[in-house]
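Need the bound structure for BES, inputs here:
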Amino acid sequence: MDIQLTGAPLASLEADLLVLGVFQDEAFTPPLQALDNEWAGLLAGVTTEGSFKGKTYELEWLYPAPGKTKRVLLIGAGKRSAYDVRVARRLSAIGARQARNKRAGRVCVALPTTDSLDAAHVAQSVADGALTGLSDSDLYKDREQKFTVGVMQIWVPQADAAATEGLERGRKIASAVNFGRWLGDEPGNVMTPVRVAEESQKWAKECNLECQILGEDELRDAGMGSLLSVSQGSRQPARVVVLSYKGGDGGTTLGLVGKGVTFDTGGTSIKPAADMHYMKYDMCGAATVLSAIGAIAQLGARANVLAVAGLVENMPGGAATRPGDVVRAANGKTIEVINTDAEGRLVLADALDLARRRGADRLVDVATLTGAMKVALGDVTTGAVGNNEEWTAKLLSAAKSVGEYVWPMPLHSEYTDKIKSNIADMMNTGGRYGGALTAAAFLQHFVGDTPWVHLDIAGTAYTEKDFAWQMKGATGVMIRTLVKLGMGDG
Ligand code: BES
Ligand code: MN
Ligand code: ZN
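Answer from helper R.:
Posting the output first, comments after.
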């Protein structure tokens, strides 16, 4: 899809579909009022005589439309006070998907700008929303007959340099988000650890990143007995991918660490069959960090960033880890594996340690780590646990500014007490309650005193239902947040 900016009067635009964002409970914004004047009050009629109120994501069609527009879609932007980049992205995604449904080859999207959302942010959000909204998870269907929207014009009050930059940012971020979602949506038989490593290599080339892939011999030599204990029951060999970007002169290095379990059967502690197919998404943490560092590089951040993806398949083969086995992590600590289904932390243990060895002095890990976090926050909000208030606050503020929901959870020494082992330095589970936090307490053993935030995306990495703005499947959650954080400008 070709995306352009325009600042021309709305009535002058030629389009198969014109998408207009309309606020709830207020008069038309000046550009909409100007259009309505040209169209002799047609739009006002829809809002006064019809049922359209402008409630968030509410739709109203006008067909045929007057002037040079074939069809108009009024879309509710909701209350001005709740309007932000998140809403703008979704409005644009809905508009783009509706354009595709109606086989509208030329679509123009005009969303409001406000005191808190300037033209650059609107341009970025509309480009991002449309490109991610049109990217679907039905990878193995015949998609030949799916209509392609050829051109999208993004309307802004002034198509200036700032708005153009916003549009370019949106394009790059969307391409990273779509890459991450694609990695997640590919099934476990395709997106194996080796395949993720290959795709990372291609992606690194595209984004001008340094890429190193560690094979099993290297992982063994590095002493990563914790990570390797997860893949030993599988025919698929483990990989660790390290991507690095050096855009800063000296200074700090941000380490992004992802859980990449390409399929999680639970291993010897096997999972029930119901919903096990969703465990192809258990590599979304890895997908997130690989995607984010790519966008950070493409945006030319003046910062140093490192991404480490721990890639394994968790299978119950004859060589699989048994409950009660003791393994040794690369940092020398010993772990009693009580439950082989608590494998993500075993992978992250060695991956976090590697990131520190490679010079990371700020850490964020991303993982579909616990069902407990999904129970706590649902599929709406990502849970965060950290060891440093300032660093956690930075991450929360990055998330807020890109419109992603993250909520902080506590990490007290009492959680660490629950994973004490009789035979080893720690156990990999901590009993029935507070499972998301005993998991975080486990990870803390591998970050030392480096400022660190753990993001548990078990609930948010994928959706089980379709939305008007996005098909069910991988969401790409936290990519935008990590990009914002990695740019070091927010
Ligand atoms: N990958 C799962 C967590 C998960 C659950 C992700 C649901 C997405 C949706 C993880 O490896 C796991 O199995 N965790 C266990 C830990 C338990 C055995 C301590 C869990 O949460 O049940
Ligand atoms: Mn598991
Ligand atoms: Zn898992």
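Comments: The CA atoms of residues 254 and 305 lie 5 Å apart. The radius of gyration is 24 Å.
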